[in-house]
Amino acid sequence: MIRTRLSVMMFLEFFIWGAWLPLIFAYLPERGFSSAEQSWILNTFAIASFVGMFFSNQFADRNFAAEKFLAVSHLIGGLAFLGLYWATNFWSFFALMMVHCLFYVPTISITNSIAFANVEDAQRDFGPIRLWGTIGWIAAAWPYIFFPERTNMFFFTGVASIALAVFSLFLPHTPPKPAAPGEGSFAWLKAVKYLQVLSIFVLFVVTFVDTAVHQCYFIWTETFLQKIGVAKNYTGTVMSIGQVAEIGTMAVLGMVLKRLGWRTTMIVGILGHFVRFGLFAFVPLQWLAISINVVHGVCYAFFFATVYIFVDEFLPKDVRTSAQGLFNVMILGLGPFVGNLIWPAIGEQTAPAVVEAQVAFDQGSPSVKLSGFVRNSASGADKVEIFEELPPPSPGGKADQRLVLEAPLGPEGKLEATLPDIAAGDHTFFIKTLRRGGLLGDQPSTVNLPLKVPAEAPKAEVKAVGKDFDFQTLFLYPALTALVAAILLAVAFHPPAQGTPETTKAPPAH
């Protein structure tokens, strides 16, 4: 059955992505990569979306059967990801990650095109097929319950990619679409011309803004959840609530589109970001922050999936793959690329506490010197309490904390303190104080400082830097940005009526 094969294709496609993306953020610093190196590795995905627009999707449009393109891409990408296990330095890791992304990213739009080409009614059939991609993303987290080492992501991702390469050979044949007589051979050029249509251009701009806002969720939510008391080993599970909700949302997407129409459905999807980030900012209650993740499914299905369906519905058949790739440049490329730059920068600007811990051997035995600032406006909070995490009394038990020192704060929250006679080994220190917290009053502010103390004086400095972030201010930016995007879509996006795809008319010549 064709729909079953298309569903399996979507399951494996997003299993591949979900098997490594949630883990890579914590894995890269563990490997010792610098912050700049981490940024370059993470942005291979965005870079690949730009390259895919001008090369890979061109082959799929004009010169290559889509299912064969999928098979070749996943074979090469899977082998590259397996090779990451043995990558020993930044350049080898970066090169292999780039190869994987260059071949994987275009397959996201290719799988969409294969699905659209082999269903009778895109609005009715695409949602249920695409939701199997979401199920695949969720399923990718389960193997780590039994094989928790992060390095297993290279095996799971690589094997799933090679499995999809083989399975692609059994997908429905989706032939290339040669250029019509008199047309240029570059499908992406024709797709770009459709940005002259006002509704397509407005949707293109809003897609960029919404994608940049969406990236803030991935960058800061895990840190925020830990900040409000969610245990580190549960943050991934909490964030997956959004993917679970996405299943139900995708299942009803066709019905919602028919009842609300293109514009209203997309506006609801964008406003999901406004609601979620607004609650994160002003009502940071743990139960609410956990439950509000259900809107992640609304944000994805009602906007991003709807955009893909709209493009397939209202652009000519011979450029649909390239048009999907054009929007992928925003959804997977420029939006996340800009988001990766601006949201960490805004987070740094909103940090009310920055503390450096440095190991010293002034008296022969190691001590830890703390310096930095802990700004707060809570009444009476003119000091900080410094705790150390103690190992659990038994394997699998809960770690405890002991108070090490109370240190006064100087002018403008300046902190200077010394912790003498620290034993060699791995330590985790917590600097705690109070900070005014908006609607909920004074809130605890905690700086986490993991530090490895050597037994003897090292040749190089040993230090660590910890920060706390003002999430109320930080999340206010994406919330307001999403609201502006929704207003722009409401005012300037005027899709054609059903059955009259005006955007398929040739754009005016210049």
Structural description of this entry:
By secondary structure, the chain is an alpha+beta fold. The protein has helices spanning 2-18, 21-30, 35-42, 44-54, 56-63, 66-83, 90-117, 122-139, 143-146, 152-168, 187-193, 198-227, 235-239, 241-251, 253-282, 286-291, 295-314, 320-349, 471-492; strands spanning 353-360, 367-374, 383-390, 400-408, 414-419, 425-436, 442-453, 463-468. The chain has 3 domains: 1-173, MFS general substrate transporter like domains (Growth Hormone, Chain: A); 188-350 and 475-494, Growth Hormone, Chain: A (Up-down Bundle); 353-468, Sandwich (Immunoglobulin-like), CATH 2.60.40. A 4-stranded antiparallel beta sheet has the order 5-2-1-8, with no helix packed on it. Strands 4-3-6-7 form a 4-stranded antiparallel beta sheet, with no helix packed on it. Helix 1 (2-18) packs antiparallel against helix 10 (152-168). The longest helix has 30 residues, at 198-227.
Keywords:
Immunoglobulin-like, four-stranded antiparallel beta sheet, disordered C terminus, 510 residues, Growth Hormone, Chain: A, 3 domains, 19 helices, alpha+beta, 8 strands
